[in-house]
Design goal:
By secondary structure, the protein is mostly beta strands. The chain has one domain (9-141). Helices cover 7% and strands 39% of the residues. It has one helix and ten strands. It has one helix at 25-34, and strands at residues 9-13, 38-43, 49-52, 64-67, 74-77, 85-87, 93-102, 112-116, 122-131, 137-141. The strands form two sheets. Strands 1, 2, 3, 4, 5, 7 and 9 form a seven-stranded parallel β-sheet that branches. The protein has a three-stranded parallel β-sheet with strand order 6-8-10, with no helix packed on it. The longest helix has 10 residues, at 25-34. The N and C termini lie far apart (39 Å).
Length: 142
């Protein structure tokens, strides 16, 4: 697998745990939100399996790329209760590659919800699978 990164810094995910400690996806999203220099999140090739969410992941507030290890080896499971991607910030770009989202929150935008007031978010997906979710994505501008 070859990964092309956007210019800037990278945060690595080395754990399948859903905590706010270093090496987790939740922590990496928080770091990317808090630093304009971090614009890529890479799930380590040694970290395959399922990240089962225990709450919604943080609202994405800055442009970011999230790279899994492959749609058959990296899964983010919303546990039918939680949303994986939420964005309410205007005009950013979110890119997601090589993973599976499953069992999102049972409502509109169960896995992906991007709603903002003026400039739409650009949402790019490559080699991503969505499983067992109703209302998978919700994109709106008000």
């Amino acid at each position: 697998m070859t990964i092309s990164l956007a210019p800037g810094g990278c945060e690595s995910v080395t754990s399948l745990a859903d905590t706010n400690t270093s090496g987790t996806l939740r922590y990496a999203l928080g770091q990317a939100n808090n630093s304009a220099s971090i614009n890529s999140i890479i799930i380590s090739s040694a970290t395959t399996g399922t990240i089962t969410l225990t709450s919604n992941l943080p609202d994405i507030t800055q442009s970011v790329e999230i790279h899994g290890t492959g749609r058959d080896t990296t899964t983010i499971d919303g546990n039918s209760l939680y949303r994986a991607i939420t964005n309410t910030t205007n005009g950013i770009t979110i890119t997601v590659k090589d993973l599976t989202f499953t069992r999102g929150k049972n409502e509109q935008g169960g896995i992906v919800n991007t709603s903002n007031s003026s400039t739409p978010t650009t949402f790019n997906i490559t080699n991503v699978k969505f499983n067992n979710s109703s209302g998978t994505a919700w994109f709106s501008t008000v």
